[in-house]
Amino acid sequence: MRILLHTCCGPCALYPLRTLRSAGHDVTGFFYNPNIHPYQEYALRRDAAVRMAEQESMPLIMQDDYDLEGFLANVAAAPQLRCSYCYASRLRATARVAAEGGFDAFSASLLYSRFQKHEEIRALGELIGRESGIVFHYQDFRSGWQEGIKLSKELGLYRQQYCGCIYSEKDRYLPKVKAA
Question: Quick check: is 179 in a domain?
Fold first, then answer.
């Protein structure tokens, strides 16, 4: 199949890319991540995705929109639901580009991370696939977590320290207050 793989970053896309290729699929990456904050972090991840795509000879479609205001407008009233919005918006964009580009299916490197809400991503991908008329290719890539880390280090790719949005940055870096 020709699969469009949503690529959240270079390191997270490596293992899914290699796994899909080893199964005989033709994979193109799609970078669209308007949720990442701050802009410097966005640029580092974008550049790492481009570098990985070059190193792996993976075609990469870029939707280089840094829409922090749009992301915040959609999640500020209910930040606890931000991941659902984030997953859905990126999967919808991927499905749209896949359908317009004549791909057989779409998938996401989000399915690689041990820290993402895996079943929610799967359910949203399948729902969006039905709505868009394009197959969501589900595959659990989490078993390759350590291999992906090793590969990204070998390739010298920038490795982020938090999921991406301003809220996950806060969760990662704000000192935790110990309960008395």
Answer: no
Average pLDDT over residues 35-40: 93
Task: Assess whether pLDDT exceeds 70 at residue 180.
Answer: no
User: Quick one: tokens of 22?
Assistant: 């080893």
Residue whose pair of structure tokens reads 């990442």 in the numeric block: 36
Residues 79/49, Cβ–Cβ less than 8 Å: no
How many residues would you count in the chain?
180
Asked, as a colleague might, if the bond just before 38 is cis with ω within 30 of 0, I would say yes
Do 36 and 63 contact (CB within 8 A), yes or no? no
**Among 100, 129, 77, 133, which Cα is nearest to 30's?**
100
Report the alpha-carbon distance of residue 5 to residue 162 in Å, rounded: 21
User: 140 lies in a domain?
Assistant: yes
| Rounded distance between C-alpha atoms, residue 40 and residue 45, angstroms | 9
Helix 145-154 to helix 10-22 angle (10° resolution) is 110
Domain that holds residue 162: 2-173
Cα–Cα separations (whole angstroms), residue 171 to 105, 117, 163, 165, 166: 34, 16, 10, 10, 9
- For the whole model, what pTM was predicted? 0.94
Distance between CA 38 and CA 4 in Å, rounded?
26
The CATH number for 141's domain is 3.40.50.620
**How far is residue 137's CA from residue 144's CA, in Å, rounded to a whole number?**
17
Quick check: 33 pLDDT over 80?
A: yes
